[in-house]
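Researcher: I'd like a structural prediction for the single chain below. Treat it as a standalone chain; there are no partners to consider.
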Amino acid sequence: MSTPKTVRFFLEDRLRESAQSGQHNFINKVADILRVHGFDVAFHKMSDRGIGGYALTHMKVPETGHGLTFRRVYHYPFWQIDRTDKRWDWRVAQAKFDPAQIEEKEANRFYNFWRKRLYDLQGDCDDDGFVYVPLQGKLTQHRSFQDCSPVEMIERVMAALPDRKIIATFHPKEEYLQSEQNAMARLEQLHSQLELRTGQMIDLLPKCACVVTQNSSAAFNGYFYGKPAVLFGKIDFHHIALDGMQLSDFEQISNHRPDYARYIWWFWQNQSINAGHPSAEEKITDRLRAFGWIE
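Model: Treating it as a single chain, here is the predicted structure.
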């Protein structure tokens, strides 16, 4: 009799405790499918990484060899499993979105359900004309997945939209260097159109004209408010966003009205794993089969 292979889940403490107690819907579905296909399952601390073998790591770089990563697709109960922790290299990022292939009535039902569920939204939102720029980390650095540094991004937006008020927000969970804070303060002093705040996504999304960012999830959340996104970096939800490096004037944004309902349905219900849907087990199985873990 052959010895079962072991799949190790590397998890943060609270997530690990939830999985061990059988309370985590998605992780326990994955574990059950693995057991059916002859694997043993073990739940480890993140600090145990480096053991090798078959491994599923939450959000972090996968283990070498038979390693995969998994993470929530912005909101529960949607999840993804892939070979990399870089969202912009996920399968969905490479896929083509074709709204013509998606049934309108079902997409609208799905979209309106999640607008109501997440943000208690019904109908259209206001547009006070300002540009919302949610910032992330490393404001003066130009990282490999970005078109430019966040500071340069703001300079480009001000040049392209000189008549628009721009509200740029620091991420409330980021710790910024004094040099980064100084760079942003100088911009605010030099440009009256720029206002700096911290957080406030829920206050700003309903009233902004658009969301401009490197790849903040605030832009994805903006889709539920019907707000166009302009991106200066790579990410998985880029399909209906504008390319910030190609932005020349506000007309491009004001005339950009993608089919948000069809996109959200495609991105979540078609391309992701909805752990609360009857299709979850089949989709998990398909992903594990695609990576050669099961036959």
